[in-house]
Write a structure and sequence with these properties.
heterodimer, A: about 180 residues, two-stranded parallel sheet, B: about 350 residues, alpha+beta, 10 helices, about 40% helix, elongated
Chain lengths: ~180, ~350
């Protein structure tokens, strides 16, 4: 009995080590610095930071409503603009491609947001858009959304393999 | 005895905390006055009983004081049984009476607070929306062209009830001006209300009273109770659109504001900036503080806030824009003109 006590106490104390396991780095104070770097169209080091960070993703979801992305894309299902939930990408589905699309716009209606949203906000938005087709780690995805939806929560959906599908010339926007 | 209690004297300095711009012991509002009366009643009644109990304890302590001579029998105690019994009945009566007084006081306080507008006076209507971490304020009038939109500051005319409609855009917040009234929660998806009945002119501070995230502590609201004349002046000034910039520097700031990131989120009435994501800035320089009571309104604070909002209030939703020095000077100069 008495010999078991120190051992079990030591074992219990090791559980305190778990307190050192941060889920993720929010980096509130360091955001300013990171945004002074130039955009790299292929292999930008920020892509992984933003797409696998629950905080950045939920900020992107907020901005998606605030910046009226829902006006054309609805909540990912598409409307006037193409759907973002499916696995088809006209201009590439990597984080860098989505940031480029947001900042510079695309033909047939997608306006450029350069100078209207900051670099950081563009990356956050891209992280959210990227997650709509469940390409993000499951522990980063939000379990529920605020708006009405007939699809399962993102955490219960299976990842969709991205397919590049260039728009047909002269094709009307939308589906 | 007195000398032994002397070290406790500094504790009375705590009473000094019972006044100021954010205290619940004030009578500047009808509700807070009613609540204070209840608090005073409870304090007096319980203090009387505390003193009585302490007096009995001290009497019991001194009663025998080692004066027993035989060491066994206690003739003294038994001979006073009659007076003890009388005292006991008196004590039960006092406790019963005091409990009745306190219960009635609570009841009348509750009834008093339940009367929203007993004299049926004309009411000022204000919609207050909580956001992480700032307050959106809209004054609604019968003539909608007179409506006022501002942020993080409300002005109330003294003696006129203000009906506050409380909503939230994100999480649960709580509206509390301790000098004027009690708390009321702001719940996403529904409208709560509270009536403020200010009785004394002054500057008070409200604070979000429900933990709402990282910057909960920096979610304050300046409440000014004005004389009717001052309030009318403030109202008239707030109804005006923003003044046109006149100096070249302010004009450059205006141009930047309207064409870049600022106008994506902020509204300035009278200009093309008409977004509602962030606080309304139409008369931002006329307010007492910026960033929901985080910094006093002055040139230095404005520079600090525009240059790096995340440094002043980490986690808030205003992004780091990355203005260069010229742009920073210009935007700050423009905001300063928004009186």
């Amino acid at each position: 009995m008495s010999s078991l006590f120190p051992a079990s106490a030591a074992l219990l104390c090791t559980f305190f080590l778990l307190a050192g396991c941060d889920r993720e780095e929010r980096g509130l104070r360091h955001q300013a610095k990171a945004e002074t770097m130039a955009f790299v169209p292929s292999g930008d080091p920020r892509a992984n930071d933003y797409q696998n960070n629950a905080f950045q993703l939920s900020q992107g979801q907020r901005l998606f409503g605030w910046m009226n992305c829902v006006g054309c894309h609805s909540h990912g299902g598409g409307g006037m603009g193409p759907p973002l939930m499916d696995n088809k990408w006209r201009y590439g589905g990597r984080m860098e491609d989505i940031v480029y699309t947001i900042l510079n716009g695309r033909p047939n209606g997608m306006p450029p947001f350069k100078g209207r949203v900051t670099q950081q906000q563009a990356w956050q938005l891209a992280a959210y858009v990227h997650s709509l087709s469940i390409q993000t780690r499951k522990d980063v995805l939000g379990a529920r959304t605020e708006e009405m939806s007939n699809v399962e929560p993102p955490t219960l959906q299976s990842p969709r393999t991205p397919i590049n599908e260039p728009p047909a010339p002269g094709h009307a926007p939308g589906k | 005895m007195i000398r032994r209690l002397l070290p406790l004297l500094p504790l009375t300095a705590l009473v000094a905390g019972c006044q100021g711009i954010q205290t619940s012991g004030d009578d500047a509002g009808r509700d807070s006055a009613i609540i204070r009366d209840l608090l005073v009643t409870f304090t007096i009644v319980t203090a009387i009983f505390f003193v009585a109990v302490m007096a009995f304890l001290i009497a019991a302590y001194w009663r025998r004081g080692g004066k027993r001579q035989d060491g066994i029998s206690d003739e003294d105690g038994v001979s006073h049984e009659r007076s003890l019994r009388l005292g006991f009945f008196f004590w039960v009566g006092a406790v019963g009476g005091a409990l009745t007084v306190l219960t009635l006081a609570s009841y009348f306080t509750d009834r008093g607070l339940a009367q929203a507008n007993p004299d049926n006076k004309p009411v000022l209507s204000i919609a207050l929306t909580g956001n992480q971490w700032w307050w959106d304020v809209q004054y609604h009038y019968e003539d909608p062209s007179k409506n006022i939109r501002t942020a993080n500051e409300i002005h109330l005319p003294v003696g006129i009830p203000a009906m506050i409609y409380l909503q939230s855009n994100d999480v649960i917040h709580s509206f509390w001006v301790p000098n004027l009234a009690g708390k009321q929660d702001l719940i996403p998806g529904r409208v709560n209300d509270i009536v403020l009945m200010p009785r004394r002119v002054g500057h008070y501070r409200a604070q979000c009273a429900e933990y709402c995230g990282l910057q909960h502590a920096h979610m304050a609201l300046d409440v000014f109770v004005d004389t009717p004349a001052d309030f009318a002046k403030w109202e008239a000034a707030q109804e005006q659109p923003a003044p046109q910039p006149t100096t070249p520097l302010a004009q450059a700031g205006y141009a930047y504001f309207m064409s870049r990131e600022c106008s994506t989120c902020h509204n300035i009435t009278g200009t093309t900036a008409s977004a509602t994501v962030g606080p309304d800035l139409t008369h931002v320089a006329s307010r007492a503080t910026i960033a929901a009571g985080t910094l006093p309104m002055n040139r230095g604070s404005l520079y600090a806030w525009i240059a790096d909002p995340q440094g002043v209030k980490p986690g808030n939703n205003m992004p780091y824009v990355g203005l260069n020095a010229d742009e920073l000077h210009a935007v700050e100069a423009y905001l300063e003109t928004l009186k």
